[in-house]
Design goal:
Elements lengths: L2 H9 L4 E4 L5 H10 L26 H8 L3 H7 L12 E5 L3 H10 L7 E3 L2 H9 L1 H5 L24 H16 L3 E2 L8 H6 L10 H11 L6
Parallel strand pairs: 1-2, 2-3, 3-4
Helix pairs in contact: 3-4, 6-8
């Protein structure tokens, strides 16, 4: 019912969006559909199967294309979710951050058009553990070395329910080729990269440079 918000934001020239509290696959399919234009793209060869016809309308490309520095026609061609569309340049992501999302995560992550996602540790802690857990000082973050690492190679939180929730969500994303976000630190960055984490937040220049050095990534400039 709020598709107009997505359309308005994209029409302002934004390159990516995140759907928080992605609780069911129907909502995710509409999220993807709302970000797309209303014509078939034969070159996708059915990669967008199951997504309703796009809801963005003619005229929305006018301002957005100027922000992107390309023509309106070029914008319409490129304004499609990557990596579902290899030539697309929109990045759509999800937060599966409560017990409802957890229950449906295997179906949610099968919806095409999503580039990356995360399990939302803060909200997941609220949803699964409740207020008393937080009042008692329960932590929603996993710190390097505090309790070692899980079999998946992630920093152990130390609360079974949360460790299991994260593992289930991460496994579902991995199975459906969705890049996984996880918070990191200078101490656990290399371990997380080895575990398959492809998205994180740059908490410092030191963390960013360490990640580039470890992955041997060369910047284009």
């Amino acid at each position: 019912m709020n598709h107009w918000v997505i359309e308005q934001v994209l029409s302002a020239g934004v390159h990516g969006l995140m759907l928080c509290h992605a609780r069911n696959p129907e909502a995710v399919r509409m999220f993807v559909a709302t970000a797309r234009y209303q014509f078939e793209r034969a070159e996708l060869k059915g990669a967008d199967k199951g997504i309703p016809e796009g809801l963005r309308g003619s005229g929305s490309q006018s301002y957005a294309s100027r922000i992107w520095g390309i023509s309106g026609t070029e914008y319409i061609e490129r304004a499609d979710p990557w990596p579902m569309n290899p030539k697309g340049e929109l990045i759509l992501s999800l937060k599966m951050e409560d017990k409802y999302a957890l229950a449906n995560v295997e179906e949610i992550t099968k919806v095409p058009g999503i580039a990356w996602g995360e399990w939302g540790p803060g909200d997941q802690s609220m949803s699964l553990m409740g207020l008393e857990y937080l009042k008692k000082g329960g932590s929603n973050e996993a710190h390097a070395g505090s309790d070692g690492f899980t079999p998946e190679g992630l920093p152990r939180i130390g609360v079974q329910k949360l460790d299991e929730a994260r593992a289930r969500i991460m496994a579902a994303m991995k199975a459906n080729h969705i890049f996984q976000l996880h918070s990191t630190s200078i101490e656990n960055l290399e371990q997380l990269i080895k575990a398959g984490i492809m998205v994180t937040h740059g908490t410092s220049v030191e963390v960013t440079n360490k990640g580039r050095a470890f992955t041997k990534r060369q910047m284009p400039y």
